[in-house]
Amino acid sequence: PMIPTEVVEYVIDDLWDDIYTLHSFSLTCRDLVPRSRCYIFSDVRIVGQGQLNSFLNLLNANPAIPSLVR
Asked: Domain of life here (predicted)?
């Protein structure tokens, strides 16, 4: 059965501070990715050069993500 978009958006909005669950939730359906990404990438903390390099590679590979990062 199809879940109404409003319900899915409410669940994602309610999970805004649980990045692990948001990530898992967004892996279940491609349509959930854009709304989940706005929370996943809204507050990025990088520790170390290795994480910085990995994150820069992610940004270069996905041009939609840089506008979400603060």
From this structure: Eukaryota
Domain residue limits, the chain: 5-61
User: Could you say which DSSP state residue 66 is in?
Assistant: G
Q: Quote the radius of gyration of the chain (alpha carbons, Å).
A: 13
pLDDT tens digits for 2-39? Answer: 778 888 888 888 888 888 888 887 888 777 788 888 88
CA distances from residue 53 to 5, 35, 45 in whole angstroms, order as listed:
36, 25, 13
Listed in sequence order, the residues at least 6 apart from 32 whose beta carbon sits closer than 8 Å to its beta carbon are 8, 12, 25, 26
Write down the pTM of the prediction: 0.59
H/E stretch holding 5: helix 5-14
